[in-house]
Design brief:
Elements lengths: L2 H14 L4 E5 L7 H14 L5 E5 L3 H10 L6 H8 L11 H15 L6 H12 L6 H11 L11 H13 L1 H6 L4 H5 L9 H14 L4 H15 L10
Parallel strand pairs: 1-2
């Protein structure tokens, strides 16, 4: 049986059926960008059947960035809107509840970290403008658990910042390897001035085409990774 005949048969069956089918697809922002666009097109075209409905759960910022990476620059919102007919935004957490949730998630997985109180305070300050929903907190909490499974020495504070950049600013994350020498130096030149590092960070942000709204956030995250806030002027 040809594909169009098969589809017509399914459409007739579903049209006569008194049962509605709900297909739930969770965490679609965790697949790669090509697979994501394929999924959207499948739902929008092939999956458009009578009495069949789709519930797609995802982080809006991450999905928009991923769609832009495959060629829909500045058109990601309109592309997604063609597929997602009725968007429902998860309610944001109240500021105190948000900070408490981040703190609890951090303390659950980073029990032996040095300078714990000051580190927790700084992490909450850095990521609370980004992680604003219960779903985002739950996802972050699940990924925090990876820290103890790595089996290598990595600063918990840096691990979280890198995780946030990877999830919410994938363009910046993808550019980090090409800026390695400028950001962390070489064996013969391990020190860079804070001013030089800040200029490099600004260059990286510009190349990643970060929106004006997010520029200050990502700049703060990167400076916390690479720029020494002490008087020594050395990088971490």
């Amino acid at each position: 049986m040809r594909g169009d005949q098969t589809r017509e048969k399914i459409e007739n069956l579903m049209d006569k059926s008194e049962i509605a089918v709900l297909v739930i697809i969770d965490d679609i922002d965790r697949i790669d960008n090509v697979e994501l666009c394929t999924l959207f097109k499948t739902v929008g075209n092939i999956g458009n059947l009578p009495n069949v409905y789709y519930l797609l759960a995802y982080d809006k910022i991450s999905v928009s960035d991923m769609v832009e990476e495959v060629g829909f620059t500045n058109k990601s919102i309109s592309f997604i809107a063609k597929i997602v007919q009725y968007p429902f935004l998860a309610s944001s957490l109240e500021n105190l509840e948000l900070k408490t949730s981040i703190k609890d998630a951090f303390e659950q997985h980073f029990k032996d970290i040095e300078n714990k109180d000051s580190t927790v305070h700084n992490i909450v300050r850095l990521i609370s403008p980004i992680v604003k929903t219960h779903r985002a907190i739950n996802r972050l909490n699940a990924e925090f658990s990876l820290y103890n499974d790595l089996g290598v020495e990595i600063d918990g504070h840096d691990f979280i910042i890198i995780l946030i950049i990877k999830n919410y600013y994938p363009k910046v994350f993808a550019l980090l390897p090409s800026y390695k020498t400028k950001l962390v130096g070489t064996d013969s030149n391990k020190k860079n001035s804070n001013e030089s590092l800040k200029n490099t960070i600004e260059e990286l942000i510009t190349k990643a085409e970060i929106t004006e709204v997010d520029k200050n956030i990502i700049q703060t995250l990167l400076e916390n990774l690479f720029v020494d806030t002490s008087s020594s002027g050395e990088i971490y």
